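User: Please predict structures.

Assistant: First:
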Amino acid sequence: MKRLKILRRWFARKFGFARMVCLVLLIGFAGLRVWDPPPVQELRLRTFDMFQLIDPRDKKGVRPVTIIDIDDKSLARFGQWPWPRTRIADMIINLTGNGAVAIGFDVVFSEADRLNPDLVAGQMRYLDDATRTRLRELPSNDQILSDAIRRSRVVLGETGQPEVGSELDKTLPFTGVATVGEENAEKFLFEFPGLLRNVPVIEKVAAGRGLFTIRTERDGLIRRVPMIMRAQDNIMPSLSLEILRVITGTPTLLVRTDKTGVRAIRLKGVEIPTDKNGQLWVHYAPHDPSIYVSAADVLDNTVPASKIAGKLVLIGTSAVGLNDIKTTPVSRAMPGVEIHAQVLESVLSGAVISQPNYALGVELLAALIIGLLVIIFTPNLGPVRLVLAGAMFAAVLVGTSWFFYAQYRYLIDFTYPLLSTTAIYLTFIFASFVREQRQRKEIRGIFAQYMSPVLVEQMAQSPEKVVLGGEEREMTIMFSDVRGFTTISESYKHDPQGLIALMNRFLTPLTDVIIEEKGYVDKYMGDAIMAFWNAPLDDAEHEVNACEAAIQMLEKIDVVNKAREQEAADGGHVYIPLNVGIGLNTGIGVVGNMGSDLKKNYSVLGDSVNLASRLEGQTKEYGFPIIVGSRTALAAKDKFAILELDFIMVKGKSEPEVIYAIAGREDVMHSAAFQRLRNITIEMLSCYRSRDWQGALDAIERGRKSEDADTLEKLFKLYEARIKDFQLDPPPEGWTGAFALLTK
């Protein structure tokens, strides 16, 4: 026992307020990371940007992608965009003839070509009928493009729209997508209400169709590209993913999911890791003009064969006027089509980066472990060791994060654990400063903080108690409160001094009774009093003394009420009596000096305190001014008239509690009238708990015919109401008779 006390004191001394604050900070930062507000996201994203700037994707070797650029040179040569579809067809024919593996369009042909012969025939003036007829007999430009697409392997681009433009043609083909995993992929994907597709004549002959829509981050950078999305209630692959599906001959895309979201997308021989929303972290290489070929050169068929043969070809634009320039972590200005090329090259070279779905768990675990190490060991370190330990933890976090990126291309954030640990360090430094200031102040004025001379004397005899904290003791706790004091206060709304005088008038005798019976007044809460027994001094009969104090308090209130009633009669004003409710409970509490650097109070905390407060609140429900817990009643049963009231379940406690009323002292306990009422109450409770509803009601009726039955009238009405409810809706199997308190 002595060793246990020493251990408790050591723990209280070593595990102080600063550690508790740091634990709260640790939990708070974990909650912040899970919530992941935009500032936290951006800090993490900037870290990942730095990694790519330091170590971008290696672009050495043969480049698998060529970009056909509708650049300013091409526009100057062939005119403004959009070009006639025949010119696009010529481009496809030349690229196919030069050995392109697949051709992807980062543009959409959503409307019929305005230069289709039949449209020209209807729009041109001064044409003779024969010419108009001849024009209408010519094949449309869209059909010519369709024929060129049919003879090649072309993936058309489509785009998501912020609103529905028109009904989708369900006869046009869609890429098949299936989900493999614990969750349906649809709820995790980015969604666009509308979908802009190509004209049907070319859409239906293409080898594939994919969205080239790219989402920017809050800061305008493009770090992640959605590989799969929802558009107008259809799951659609991205342009780059569809190109990969076409060249690998994959009939259906498989989307792997778990409870956290999308994990990867699987093709034949390839699995592409994604974030939970199906986005691929693009592993960028610096912008490289060498993979660009002017569309003008393709149309002139002057491109070296090595630039096209065996390549994946993307057709897009870098022309400033066409507004398809993006910002990435490695480049301030990169044509949007090159981002698709970067995705293709990353996947084909196996140089993808990813943030695993378990990354959040790793970051939280790292912050927890390092945070706990700091909380445990930091207060015991000197300044030099503290700085060295901080530098070591920072180096470990940064180094581990970089190791995962450099070796495995995993994005593991070190900023969150570093911020969390830094906050804990700063808190300890601040707490150390505050503690020194507080100790100096306590030495000068600690004894002036306490009002009780007994407590001051004990503190003088035991200086080790002059600390925040305390000890566990078995105690009896009292809460008392004046019933209807709000109504009484309203009668003094024009006489505040009179209200203060009234409070002092009844609080003074109640306080005197508590002190006389060896109790300690903890605090006043308006008209309420909190007190306890068996601390700071030992009291072997603290339960009995507390019960005696409670009865004397009622007697003192009666004296005050009689005097007030006479004063009201003499003064001709309304008399409102003071009625006090008292709750007593015995149990283990933590008692000691509690508070802040500026103000302390010798007080008690614990479940037993909460129950005493609840019991005081129930005095108005059961009709008895003094209600006590089972341990108090057991200790005082030989000296007071104890009456069992109920078997209750208090919110926050797992075990129910039997509660009792104190009806008087020994003279009441031995009276015949009390014994009859006690026996009737026992019979009623026995029938009630055994579900004999009628037997309980019969006992209540007999009780009402007994002497002093009005004492139990509230109790009888309370059980009558419960029984009627149970007759309509019986309690469940295993019901023990416990009643859950709904009021405080």
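Second:
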Amino acid sequence: MKKTFLYTFILIVSLCFSLAKAQNKISATNLQCEMLNNPEGIDVVQPRLSWQIKSDVNDVKQTAYQIMVASTLENLNANKADLWDSGKVVSNESVNIIYNGKRLGDRQNAFWKVTVFTNKGEIKSATTAHFSLGISTYSDWKSTRWIGYEKLSKEDSVSQYSRLSARYLRKEIDLKKQVKNAKVYIMGMGLYELYINGNKIGDQVLAPVPTDYTKNVKYNVFDVSSQLKEGKNMLGTILGNGRFFAMRQDYKPYKIKSFGFPKLALQLFVEYADGTNEIIRTDDTWKLTTDGPILSNNEYDGEEYDARKEMKDWNKTNFDDKTWVNARYVQEPGGFYEAQMTPNMKIMGEVKPISIKATPKGTYILDMGQNMVGWLQLKVKGKSGDQITMKFAESLQADGSLYIANLRDAKTTDVYTLKGEGEEIWEPRFIFHGFRFVEISGYTTKPTLDNFIGKVVYDDIKTTGTFESSDATMNQIFKNAYWGIRGNYKGMPIDCPQRNERQPWLGDRTTGAYGESFLFNNQTLYAKWLDDIKYSQTQDGGLPDVAPAFWRYYGDNVTWPGTYITVADMLYQQFADKEVIKKQYPSMRKWMVYMEENYLVNDLMDKDKYGDWCVPPESLELIRSKDPARLTDGQLLSSAFYYQLLGIMKKFSKIANAETDILHYDDLSTRIKKAFNAKYLNTATNSYANNTVTANVLPLAFGMVPENLKEKVFQNMVHEVEVTKKGHISTGVIGTQFLMRTLTNFGRGDLAFKLASNKTYPSWGYMVENGATTIWELWNGNTADPTMNSQNHVMLLGDLLIWYYENIAGIKSKPETPGFKQIIMKPDFNAGLTFVNASYESIYGLIKSDWNKNKTNLVWKITIPANSSALVYLPTANASDVKVNKEKVSKNYKTENNKLVLELPSGTYEINVNNIKQ
């Protein structure tokens, strides 16, 4: 079971450095979004170590480093690196340094620090970092038995609207000696909460992250040394259903996977002060009940809780559990046991409601003011047996009642039954809702806003990007994107959080993941998702449209499964993650071969399933357009996209040491390009196929257009956007992924800006003008068929966020130096904005771009992180018009296409440009 991969996680250490010279201070910054900052229980023996250098002086470059790793903190403090001393390594690399010391053993602790040598002096870490290995062999887990209760209680049902009460388990243990260290290793399927001596362990919710449990099962590890004492202790867990006991049981079994009843496997590893060890495992001596207060928990339908059934102190010692039954041994889930290498979900914020209004039928409508994802905490007083019902929705009907048609058969309702003991505070444990409005019934007195708090729930990852501009519409779109993206991070990227779907569709994130990476540090989330995709691959190479394959959708198209490759490319580009490519390359190659062998006909990929999904329809009432002139040929989509993937795979083959594949990729690319142009390029009209914007933008973006026709095809596409469509979007999910960048790269950033700032249909601004606080599933999401207008999707963002950062703010990683080792800072100052203030927390540190311009002058404040550099493009060719930190430019510059290009080292700069080129 022990993995020898070199690439499973990145540990960002929190360090503090200081130079001897008083004026030159350097410190490290901690990427707190990384759960893998001091992680417990990893399952790799050669992890990668990274650090950041933060400086208040310019031009700080690392020249060398020395890493010391020890088995105890005492050894490390004494500079006894008994696990690894790298020695002084001459290198400017400060991310993804592979541990190369003694082989790490089962449950091994490791403490480490680093000395960094820079051109400004030597700096030593003032603090240390830590990681530990988890359970490294299947046989070790095998001696821990899975336990549960695989029967229905009286109120449970296996049906379309499945109901299953939570399982409560407890085990009293007697620790005979003084505890020195203790760690608990837990697999609680589908969701768990863990308690020791009455205290909840960890701040995670809805744990662990979901997987296809027949393929892989994640375990979590917690250091519980401080929670245990010599003598009697109590271990307690509550098991919820999650994706394990599926939301729909015995309903469309050909489509929807279910994995059985909730179950638990747990080990408590205790190290005593005298050096001896003890392991407490799950077995049939654990006691269990299903007769607790959580009557049902179903992600689609909600949670029901009866406070009258609460069992006071059930998770403490000396509780009378004689009415409980012994847990039963149950079958294991079937999947391989793996350490969870991405953060769990957590309550990441709170939202206070903005209004509450009575309805004619005696209920109340609560408005949160923001479409959010999570749940509602309530406060209530009443009699025992009184019942509060909360039904959740995204919008209201004209009469002020909830609009629920778009939820399909999801009931989205929580029910709380009072125990009648003063003020009661409650919130659910094992579900989440996507909502802005809540219909509340059951209060015997009029509730107030103070009775409710919205809890925002998503993966515990850090917000890394900010953006503000002179255009209010663009700013609100950014805010809507932020709320939509984070709400749909649920241990995997899902499509929507409200209706009876909530699935990890691949096609929604093809370039979406790239744009999202500027707002959130989503590296470990998407590295985990690539594993989900790999595990879902069929033996012959096919990939699904949804992964994990909770829905069995194996449609064999290109554009959706191709996300497997484009997301890996994002992880390389944004985070310099080569190892994820090495890990996934064989499965990616297998899929590429599978598609070629089964669907390549006359050198074109003759397989498409969804088309350019969600093209703006000709009628505001339609979900999908029926006008052939708006629709793009499926073979064109799949062939162009496959051609693009071949180029990425060529790059990957070099990284993965599979250069023998390059000749095949080159040959196939040449053939497809030739056949593509022969069939689809109309040289009389300088357009492709039926001249949709998508049909033209794909070959332009992918480099398929003959060189002598590029400008003509582009101008034809511009005419379609600017004249035919009157400056509005006409692309669906596929075309929108490349539209904004292609317009800008060919010199029409102003037209891209018009699309971004437009307020009329169809546009992102139209959503804003019609009250959206997230991104809709459809361009006409306020008027189309209710069953298909989720108001919290992110797939229509396309490459908009990438354009915000790379083309407007000017924060882009140079492809040849991924991970922002060198930054391309090249804003389009003439697109139509007068100021932009953006920031991005890269793996090297904080990047800032804050520019303000008028007709003649530009003031641009930038920050480049230590151990990085930037190529800065200015809207002038004359160095005499430029000052950097009030000094004339005299060196380290060149001219390129009538722009002055400065090469700047790390630091903070104010650049003034006079006589700017419009």
